[in-house]
Amino acid sequence: MQVNKFDESWKKQWYGAGIFFEGSEEVEFDVFKKLEKRKVLSNVEKAGLLSKAEELGFTLSSIEKLGVFSKAEELGLLSLLEKTASFSPSTLASAALPIMVAAVVAIVVIPDDSAGLVAVQAVLAGALGVGAAGLLVGSVVLDSLQEAD
Questions:
Q1: Looking at the structure, do residues 79 and 92 belong to the same domain, yes or no?
Q2: 97 burial class (0-12, 13-18, 19+ CB within 10 angstroms)?
Q3: Is residue 93 part of a domain?
């Protein structure tokens, strides 16, 4: 086991961050270099994803008309991507657990007395479940991007 950072105030707890974040570390990470190293663009080209997108009506001119790139710059999405990529995968996976528990609690606690309550139960549990699944998938993707070369 390798210790990357020492924090004197940290202690292992029965419930809380100590259980889930125990193996986390701070990572300096360059998204674009990693994507370049993994040859993502050439893999997209080989898979024919651009042709498939064009068949579905998603072309470079449609991106241009929608102003996707300028909107991404205005919103600071590239810097957000870089900040997000430096997150610890264990943090994302740890955040998914209470959200998944909340989805189950929504199913159990909200009564099935009427169609409206069943709809609320389904929408709430579905949204929480999708969010938790997204965090878990994101943690796996981040972990694979951040793994040592």
A1: no
A2: middle
A3: yes
